[in-house]
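Mods, move this if it's the wrong board.
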Amino acid sequence: MKDKIGLQEFEEWIEDNGMESIGTMAELLKVQQEGAIELTKLILEHCEDDKKTKTYIFKVYDEAMQFVASALSKDY
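Not the wrong board. Structure tokens:
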């Protein structure tokens, strides 16, 4: 899976998919941010105090987002 797309590819994708694609992207970003908030809440509520570090929280978030990305790529 490609991590980043170039500006030209992105512009072509927008042209091919129209405004609906922008709405879909906005919705995906919203879901991503809500997921980050909920995951952080879970970590703060259930982790031992020694694991409540910025590094640990972002590591868990990164792993969760990789899981979501792999699940989404299987759907398409």
